[in-house]
Amino acid sequence: xxxxxxxxxxxxxxxxxxxxxxxxxxxxxxxxxxxxxxxxxxxxxxxxxxxxxxxxxxxxxxxxxxxxxxxxxxxxxxxxxxxxxxxxxxxxxxxxxxxxxxxxxxxxxxxxxxxxxxxxxxxxxxxxxxxxxxxxxxxxxxxxxxxxxxxxxxxxxxxxxxxxxxxxxxxxxxxxxxxxxxxxxxxxxxxxxxxxxxxxxxxxxxxxxxxxxxxxxxxxxxxxxxxxxxxxxxxxxxxxxxxxxxxxxxxxxxxxxxxxxxxxxxxxxxxxxxxxxxxxxxxxxxxxxxxxxxxxxxxxxxxxxxxxxxxxxxxxxxxxxxxxxxxxxxxxxxxxxxxxxxxxxxxxxxxxxxxxxx
Length: 358
What we know:
By secondary structure, the protein is of the alpha/beta class. It is built from ten helices and 14 strands.
């Protein structure tokens, strides 16, 4: 397994430090707790322990550490131990401990827990999809399904997943790729085809005239709901310049090429028989080098079904399923001034895997 054993520098994250320090992003009760302790003159020396409850792959740790380093009152007075982004984690395993004066970091709990929850969810989801895809290229495509401010960290979480599995992950925006220095990739979209009056070939040719020579030119071929014919038309028009075609038929439609074959399979959306028809048509016309990319409603389960059936897919585009679900983290104070102080049912869980964070 490959993991990212080198931590990102805190400056990478471009955090709104002053607002974080002021408690703007913090659940009010943590701010109230901090002020009540200060009012009493109490500075409890605590051990904070952070965990979650699933078999997962850790994401967001470098970002969480950046929050602590830049926004705690005095990070140098704290002792912090943590796992690394990409580490496999077990239910209830301690992933982070923070030791020191609680009033110096109480206002940050909402921030580091939320960061770990979001990024671990993305990393884990992408790992599962990559493994289902058996090493085939996966394109991380949820940008249009969520707020733009989550793109940067989510894209890095997808990148970490690729490092874990050792499989390629592409992202669709430059912002998603910014923390590791990559760039976004994309196909000839429906909007460009519509801009040429629904003529996929014309759109593809004009796109190819513009596109850099090293771009893997991939064209959506479902605009007219006739993917086999459109794929062949585009292949003939672009020749060796065409890297791949992308099937993206709506799950409420049946592609025209399947209209005469209904009755013994589920014909809607991008289904195995449609992929085979496109593959066989391209091969029969001498375009065996053209790859097939599929998208639209793909999940871990659907990818597993395709792979187990040997459907000739070269790459999967996966969107909203990669950002759905939950992977919540919890923080507990388990020691106060050297004495056990966890709430009932919780206790200190030492973890020899944790490493000191300078």
